[in-house]
Specification:
One of its GO terms (cellular component) is membrane. By secondary structure, the protein is mostly helical. The protein has four helices and no strands. It folds into two domains: 94 residues, no CATH class; 46 residues, no CATH class. Helix 1 runs antiparallel to helix 2.
Amino acid sequence: MPGLDRVVTGFGLSGRCAVSSVFVTMFMYSSEVYPTVVRTLGLGISMVWARLGAVLAPQLNHWTSVLLGFDAIYIIGSLSLMGSLLVLALPETHKKKLPDTIAEVRVKRKDKKAQTVQNEENVGMMDNSSRIPTELHIMENGTEPV
């Protein structure tokens, strides 16, 4: 079909643009997630895995077609979709103080666990008609409204 070449080229260019934007976003976001004392190490490890994936992708495509009889695009596509869903579980960093040390991360995790346990206890004491998730009442800075 004569118009199919343009469609394939359009999808190829769109995919390449998406890969480039994800790579830049990963670079920026991974530098925000790690505490200051290990930021360069975490960023370096993230970049190593990204480059390793870029090196192995053509080999994976070739060997799956030779050994298994199908293209690896299905494997790569499903892993991409799974990764895009897992990214939703990462913490929000917009207008929040980033941790400087690993101890600050541990304290923040303990506070979050304690807050979750307290919220579960509060929900357990309420009757079913007045159940409102207490997470909705917690403000962005982690304090509850008065």
